[in-house]
User: Which sequence fits this backbone?
């Protein structure tokens, strides 16, 4: 028997994201605000070339640029 999240076409990471969001929204206001702040993340990356680290770039911006390029 397959898991319900798998049968519905979700990845495990997406399932965890949805479950965490539901739990955060069910908390009382004071605890909910603290949990929502912890849930916000910012991911940055840097490309290494010839042993040197390049500039840091925001992953969300890179994904947006890639999506715009793909749709063109």
Assistant:
């Amino acid at each position: 028997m397959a898991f319900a999240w798998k049968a519905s076409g979700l990845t495990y990471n997406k399932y965890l994201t949805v479950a965490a969001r539901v739990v955060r929204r069910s908390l009382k206001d004071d605890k909910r605000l603290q949990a929502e702040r912890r849930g916000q993340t910012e991911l940055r990356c840097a490309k290494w070339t010839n042993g040197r680290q390049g500039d840091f770039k925001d992953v969300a911006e890179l994904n947006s640029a890639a999506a715009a390029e793909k749709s063109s």
Remarks:
- The chain is about 60% helix and 20% strand.
- The chain has a mean pLDDT of 83.
- Strands lie at 44-49, 52-58.
- The helical segments are 4-7, 12-26, 29-39, 59-71.
